[in-house]
Structure formats: structure tokens, C-alpha cells
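anyone seen this seq b4? input:
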Amino acid sequence: MLEFIKNRKTIRKYRKRMVSLKVQSSVLEAGVWASSVHGFQPWRFVATTNRRTIKTVSNILKKKADTIGKGINTLLRLTATTIEGSPFIVFVYNTGTFTNIAYRFFKIDKKYAAVAKLTETQAVAGAIQNMLLEAESLGLGSCWTATPIFSQKEINALLDEEGELLGILTCGYPAEEGKRSPRISPARSIRHIA
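predicted toks r here
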């Protein structure tokens, strides 16, 4: 498993080959089986292969890129291109389930609400990682994009969704080798306490 994880690469260019419904379902199911805070499963996945929807999302990001500062606009354009070329995308949402219940039933204050929200975000991130790994195991390339958050309002309106958009996962059969960023040394990122 560790070797499999080490060899997974981000793919931003895809072949024009459709991803079967069976393969899509397997990727999505992997997300559903992620760990979550007290089992609340605060995620919602909106998947599509619809070319018009995918192109519209790409255009939304390109339009947003024209309104924000340098640096991030380059990243938004790169993400827009990746999304546009993807045959299968998954919009990943935090539904806020745990935070809402914590407010309603446990009457938590703002300090603890921030922790509840963070645990939801962590659970959703775990679901994304599961989907990335399942996509890889099925021969798909994938890319976890976060810059679409800058256009959450527009994307939610397009999809008729209300949750908190945390990212878009692009998937497809790779049209490039992909790359893996080098890891910092374990000595810098891991600390053992005896």
C-alpha cells in the first residue's frame, strides 16, 4: 500500500475516453467509506460527466481569474483548463452535519464550533484521499483542486447546491505521465517521542 501511495501522481491532462458508470461509482463509493467524526459523514459528492456543466464550471473559474490578483489567477486558469479537459469530475462538499448537530443539541460555543467544523473538513479531506487512491487503482488519473472555492457561490448556483464546496476532483484516463512533488525528508516532518 505504501508503494502504491508513493507512486500516485497528479494528472492534469486526460484522454477523451469516457469513464464508465461502474468505475465512477467505485470512485464515489471509496469516498463514502472514509473515516468521519463520530460517524456523521459530513460529505456530499456531486459527480458529472456532462460536457456542458464541465465547460460552464471552467468558464466560471476563468471569469473569476480576471477579477483577482496575480499568482492566484494563474492557478485558477490552470485549474479551469484541468477541469475542462476532464471527462469526469466530482464536486466535494461539506454538509455541516456535525456542526449543526453540535450547535442544536450540545449548545456548543463558537470556540468548540470551530473545532467541530475542522473535524468535518478533515473527514471530507479523508474522503477525497480515498477517491484519489481508488481512481488510481482503477487506472484513472486524478487531480484534487481547491481553487474552485473562490467561485463557490457561482458553482453552487449552477449545481443548485447549498453546502460548503471544499474542492473539485478531476478524473480520467491519463494523457500525460504526471508528476509527484518531492517529499521533504522524514526527519523534518516526523517527530517520535519515546
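Helices lie at 2-7, 21-32, 51-65, 72-84, 97-106, 110-137, 152-159, 186-189. The radius of gyration is 18 Å. kinda curious what u guys think
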